Amino acid sequence: MGLEQHFPALIIAILFGIAFFSPLLYRWARKISAPALITALTLALAMSISLLIQVTQGGNITYYLGGWPPPWGVELKIDLLRVYMLIIVLAVSTWIMIYALKDLEHELKTEMLGWYYSLYALLVGSMAGITLTNDLFNLFVLMEICAISACAIISIKEDRACLEASFKYLILSAMGTGCFLLGVAMIYMVTGHLNYDLVSEALPKAVELYPNNMFAAAALFIVAFGTKSALFPLHVWLPDAHASAPSPSSAMLSGVVIKIYAFALFIMFYQIFPRTLLDSIPLNEIVLWLASMGIMFGSIFAMVQVDLKKMLAYSSIGQIGYVFLGIGLDDSMAMAGGFYHLLVHAIMKSMLFMAAGVIIYSTGIRQIKQLGGIGQVLPVTMLAFTIGSASMIGLPGTGGLISKWYLALGALDIGRPIFVVIILASSLLNAVYYMPIIVNAFMQQEEFEHEAKPVPRQMLIPLIVGMAAIIFFGVFSRPVIVLLESAMQMFF
After folding, report:
1. DSSP state of 6
2. Model-level pTM?
3. Other beta carbons less than 10 A from residue 286's beta carbon
4. pLDDT for 213-248, tens place per residue?
5. DSSP states of 412-441 as a string?
6. Domain parsing of the chain, residue ranges
7. What is the rounded CA–CA span in Å between residue 123 and residue 140?
8. Which of 16, 39, 76, 328 could form an SS bridge with 8, CB 3.0 to 4.6 Å?
9. 107 by DSSP, 3-state: which?
């Protein structure tokens, strides 16, 4: 099979390798440091697409690092859902980085760019590892790398607000990691294993013998992953972190990072925990109602914001709720909707933060009330903002409608129409705070009052790509839905 059999490990190795060399390249060969990072991200993406082809043709892949099988060695596992998540992480990360190359020149000091490239590659590599690992301890290690690098791409701006937001994120993330590690210790105590598959085999008996240990571990995992993914009411770190960070960091954190922990919780619930545990305590019900409160309160909080990036940050609290809603509904159709929303939200929210970054780059404006008439001077940017907003609301022809449709069908499928009402109400609330911005941007009669400097094409082209992707996934959704339905057959 040749080199292809090593792609799971090579993806992580390439990203961690470029993270190590980026500061050196920036110091000694500045012109090639950014192209080297883009090349590494693109190469990793190409390998992940190759893995998708391998999985669809030949079934699941397991890879033993160093040739050591579990329980002694580290195992990487590639199935349809994991490779779907991996492609989202790598594709969106590459797309954001292309935009970031120009925007970062405006937001960061020149000498910090090499360090940013390093931290960015470290963040993407850790998320790829979280997606592929099949071992609880390695998941812990990769979560730590992810958390530290995420904090660093916020604080690297060296602004007081960034440092404060990063410190708050670090403290709460550390608490989440502590909860996760304690939960892992409780599982190891009763099973003697850390490998997902071996733990899954041992847990049914462990639940009978030590039910309280397992109940505590499940609760700790919900708190751990809920904190890291900003599940309401564990979201308090998110608004400041996403609003104050450089715009590419905001796009990365909201578009990808918080999703990876929702994916990890899904793996805990449906690959590791036995069905008897999910049936004996209301884990799904807890997640359902926390997600529902996040969907509603995230939108309500967003409605009263005056800062554009903070409004988008609060909106992310509501949008991550849709993903958790799919997990909590415990229905294959709803989960397909939740994971489809994970894809479309990664695109539309990243694009909205990019659009906000272009507005700040060109005009220096962050206040929503000052955006009246801005569509006259930044038409492409505001068109991207409009299409992204339409998808957030769930209008026809956008990817946001498809994900909400499948979530609603899943809720009806299990006889829970109340969650359909919540989805409809949240869509209406999204319209309340997105539509006035769009209307004022394009339909205000007065001239735009502020000076706007030209926007580089390198920042506008990613917005055009994002608009095309949102419409594409709104019109041609069936192939992805079929893939997700096939992936869900493993768990149901």
Report:
1. G
2. 0.89
3. 15
4. 888 888 898 889 988 888 888 777 778 777 787 888
5. HHTT-THHHHHHHHHHHHHHHHHHHHHHHH
6. 282-492
7. 14
8. 76
9. helix
